[in-house]
Design a protein that fits this description.
301 residues; two-stranded antiparallel ribbon; 14 helices; globular; 1% strand
């Protein structure tokens, strides 16, 4: 038997991580050209088209069917928290500190999801979970903190605003995931994702009415280079990324899949150096590996 037949789940999880790496780099580049808010809305609209096509091929219908009112409510709230709040903060973090540091801080999302699962769903929070959280936090701290300078007890090597934005993104994604689990039940995961994306799109559309961002969206639609990057991000994220993540969970355990999918902070280092000419130190590589190790502890013990 070949590796493709015996390790389908693990390979699917690896492909998922690669997809999310391309997504974050694409959205960082697009956000710097046309602004993170416009990128958020446009990629969600694209995601509806891609996910709807996937659903049509699988089930014969474009929009989700068969969900109860409670499922629609909880999944919609999840979409608002995860996409509107979480991704709005994350995408702005891409602009401020870049995809590499943002995705490193985003490795806090699984530990935060475990914490919210304990608070909201009553899931068990073990000593291993706490250790995993501390290991991940240590890895992130190793990267973003420098040697204290005179007059400062703590020196943050990267803009504090960007780090806090990324942390807000991790918090929003974690809470959104827990709320989606609360609402999804036995409902199809891809259809549940579609409901979340629809809610996120409506949320951004309403937000833009009050913030005056619609002209920026129209300008972004005319920006060819940015639209190419947004299209790439939407394709690799909501479409391929979600699809392969479902395959990963289907063919291997959630713990194995989640650990492999969490290696984005490590995978993103080479393209960050090559494409964005970032200077990455050995300490930062070790920190990224340590953050991923913390996620592994979280799911394996």
């Amino acid at each position: 038997m070949s590796i493709f037949s015996t390790h389908q789940g693990e390979l699917a999880a690896l492909v998922t991580a690669i997809c999310w790496m391309f997504t974050s780099l694409s959205f960082e580049s697009a956000g710097k050209k046309v602004g993170s808010m416009a990128v958020n809305l446009i990629r969600l609209v694209m995601a509806i088209g891609l996910l709807g096509t996937l659903q049509y091929l699988r089930f014969g219908y474009f929009f989700p069917e068969g969900a109860s009112v409670d499922q629609w409510v909880w999944l919609s709230v999840s979409g608002l928290v995860g996409f509107v709040v979480g991704d709005m903060l994350l995408f702005q973090a891409f602009v401020v500190v870049g995809a590499r540091i943002s995705m490193l801080v985003m490795s806090l999302s699984p530990p935060l999801a475990a914490l919210f699962g304990w608070l909201v769903l009553g899931e068990q929070l073990t000593l291993a979970h706490l250790i995993g959280m501390m290991v991940t936090i240590s890895g992130i701290a190793l990267v973003i903190l420098g040697k204290p300078v005179k007059g400062k007890r703590i020196d943050v090597k990267y803009p504090l605003k960007g780090v806090l934005l990324a942390f807000g993104g991790a918090t929003g994604q974690a809470l959104g995931l827990v709320l989606s689990k609360l609402g999804m039940g036995t409902y199809d995961a891809a259809s549940a994702t579609m409901i979340r994306v629809i809610a996120g799109t409506i949320g951004f559309a309403i937000l833009f009415l009050f913030t005056g961002h619609w002209p920026r969206v129209l300008q972004a639609l005319k920006h060819g280079a940015a639209m190419v990057r947004i299209s790439i991000g939407a394709f690799f994220g909501p479409f391929l990324g979600v699809s392969f993540s479902l395959l990963a969970i289907k063919y291997t355990t959630t713990g194995v899949a989640s650990t492999i999918m969490a290696i984005v902070p490590v995978l993103i280092i080479p393209p960050a150096i090559i494409l964005f000419k970032e200077k990455v130190t050995l300490k930062e590589v070790v920190g990224a590996l340590l953050a991923v190790a913390g996620v592994a502890v979280l799911f394996w013990f």
